[in-house]
Amino acid sequence: MKKFYRNIVVISFLLSHISTSLTAQWVQTKGPYGGNISCFVKTGSNLFIGARNNGAFLSTNNGDSWTPVHNGMSSADVSALAAIGTNIFAGTNEGIYKSTDNGGNWSKANSGFSGVDVTALAVIGTNVFANNSDNYGVYISTDNGGSWNLKSSDLALKGVGCIHVMGTNLFAATSSDGVFRSTDSSKTWTSCGLIDFKINNFASNGTNLYAATDSGVFRSINNGDSWSQINNGLSDLEVSSITVIGTYVFAGTWGSGVFVSTNNGGNWSAVNNGITDLRVNSLTVSGTRLFAGTFGQGAFYTDNNGTNWSGCGLSILNISSLASIGTNLFAVSYDEVSLSVNNGDSWTPASNGLPDYGLLSIAKSGSDLFAGTAKGVYRSSNNGNSWTVAGTGLPYSEVRAFAVAGSNIFAGTYGSGVYISTDNGANWNAINNGLPDNHIRTLAIIGTNVFLGVEAMGVYLSVNNGNNWTAVNNGLTNLKVECLAVSGNNLFAGTYDGGVYLSTNNGAGWTAVNNGLTNLNIRSLTTDGNKIFAGSYQDGVFLSLNNGGNWTKINQGFALNTAPACLLIANNYIFAGIDGNSVWRRSLADITTNIDYTNVLFSPSLLQNYPNPFNSSTTIKYYIPHQGSVKLEVYDKLGRVVETLIYEEQPAGTYEVNWSGRDNPSGVYFYKLSAEGFSETKRMILLR
Q1: Could you tell me how many helices (H) and strands (E) the chain has, helices first?
Q2: Cα separations (Å) of 673 from 86, 604, 631, 682?
Q3: 15 phi and psi, to 5 degrees?
Q4: Which of 73, 166, 560, 624 is most exposed by smallest CB count within 10 Å?
């Protein structure tokens, strides 16, 4: 164990800034709405959705409002949901999770389950069935997920993609061997045809069994013994999902929205009025309301069998970049740029002319906007109303970062290095001399000095507009630079698990400035005068008023594990683009007057371990403001103490402890700090 620095408290500074009013907080703007919705399940009055990369959400009012419910899920990629009474099951790329409190908390339920990638769940009575898309067949649990068994090897190595229950029959779709049927709860399986078709989903009504495939819709009226193709009027044959309401059959397609048939698939008609994303992943029914989950714009619902659709108001997009021109605010998600003219009170699409996906970054130069995409740079001269490809010379490469200095625009790509345009994006030239790698993470400018962060290789400086680059990493002990920001002549670098570094001499020397940071994975930085803001991975936003000398959390209003990917100062607000939560804002005036500095200097804090995950040893850091009894313990996922690392009297200061996890199996562990009536627990992963 090593004690490596101690805080000095400046009382006069503290007293001049403490305020008793702590009512200011972050609020979510009203959009941009959207998200990648993969699945639904209804149990009682509760409706759950699963989102790709964004976890699970609950609505108790049939989709009118939603609440995130994924506490305890280490994987946010939810592909399947099922329910037995109050037991909710989620299939993810880390296996199966179970909740017994309506999604309030989740725990893994993988005992006996081989493989990890679960994309389908189904229920017959008290039996739960789960696929394993890693080619291991269908598993059954008869004890609410307590244990799982592979009853039959008939489907081994066949890549089961979806499961459906029809009465007492269980149907499984394989990747290339067609449909299989089990009449004995998965003990044995019989082939039912549709070989060589990619089957995405099933639905049934009475004796009609429907299969949604990449070749349209098929119907069987004899439990899968034979099938008929029913595609008349179906202009898009890539059918991703299918469901039934009474005599209405609905098919969701991957590009043409939703189709309806009122004669068992004999004829189909498009019903998309109000749906703004025609890439439909999933369909479900709740009472008489039909829901459609889309690839990028969240969920939509209809109460009149598709005549009109309304958005569900889900703001669960991953926002990668923010920019502003005057009072116009722009937010970038993977497949859309959105515009707000009222500080986020409403948003409209601003993507005309942009690629359908692969949007990564945005910046302004004068009155023009530049969007970095997976297909190069696009420019808009009319506030995002339309976009065109920005000039020539830039390769077909991901553009992840911009920096602007006068008439010079710098574009950092992920794989092709740095490019410069001196004519407003009409022409681009590569400027990579001296760079050891072409994967650029971030850019910043101080006067005539241009700085960039190269992936895992630190910071590089050019004093001649990129003609030559030189490493400036003295004192930068963590080279995984994720973001750069400038305040006057001060340059700040946010790193992956190394916290924030400060240079006051154009990168000639760096100093770590992490006092008060409880998470050292810094993904975003921005400045406003003497205010420095740092966005951390799953620990919200921190503020420093003394160039990083001290940091305090300013997370009032945020949910736990908030992960800001980008920050922007505009119109007297700070805006945060949040992973899976779209755009949030907070008044700068409220932050300045209402911040509680006692959290920084007078409260113990526990930092995230590094590295994490780890396979040999990891370091745990913590801070205690006063001398006292300190206990640091490691627990397994069942709450049993694995090891007590510290249990002693310690003076005030910051400490680090190494834990090797020797003699412990791979898995999730928790470490808990207890000191001065304070306790905090964090999660870590041991990989052998």
Answers
A1: 3, 63
A2: 33, 9, 6, 9
A3: -65, -30
A4: 560
Instruction: Write the DSSP symbol of residue 559.
Output: P
Whole-angstrom distance between the N-terminal and C-terminal Cα of the chain?
Answer: 24
**Separation CA 170–CA 505 (nearest Å):** 68
- Cα separation, 117 vs 183, in Å, equals 25
Q: How many residues does the chain have?
A: 688
Q: What is the pTM of this model?
A: 0.74
Q: Which residues contact 330 (CB under 8 A, 6 or more apart)?
A: 322, 323, 324, 337, 338, 339, 350, 362, 369, 384
Band the pLDDT of 13: cuts 50, 70, 90: very low
Whether the Cβ atoms of residue 342 and residue 285 lie closer than 8 Å to each other: no
Residue ranges of domains in the chain, CATH in brackets: 2-18+603-686 (2.60.40.1930), 321-600 (2.130.10.10)
Q: Quick one: DSSP state of residue 521?
A: -
Q: Where are the alpha helices (DSSP H) in 541-630?
A: 588-594, 598-601
- Quick: pLDDT tens for 562-619: 889 999 999 999 999 988 889 999 999 888 655 544 444 456 778 888 787 888 788 8
Return d(Cα 674, Cα 489) in angstroms, integer: 40
Distances (CA, A) of 438 to 17, 165, 259, 483: 44, 51, 46, 16
- In three-state form (DSSP H/G/I as H, E/B as E, the rest C), the secondary structure along 98-162 is EECCCCCCCEECCCCCCCCCCCCEEEECCEEEEEECCCCEEEEECCCCCCCECCCCCCCCCCEEE
Task: Say if residues 397 and 414 touch (Cβ distance below 8 Å).
Answer: yes
d(CA 157, CA 136): 6
Could you give the 3-state DSSP secondary structure of residue 14? helix
Residues facing 59 on adjacent strands: 47
- What distances in angstroms separate CA 674 from CA 429, 612, 632, 659, 670, one per listed residue? 56, 21, 6, 17, 13
Strands (E), 142-294: 160-166, 169-174, 179-182, 190-191, 199-205, 208-213, 216-220, 228-229, 239-245, 248-253, 258-261, 269-270, 280-286, 289-294
Q: Tokens in use for 170?
A: 């269980």
What does the alpha-carbon distance between residue 429 and residue 426 come to, in Å, rounded to a whole number?
11
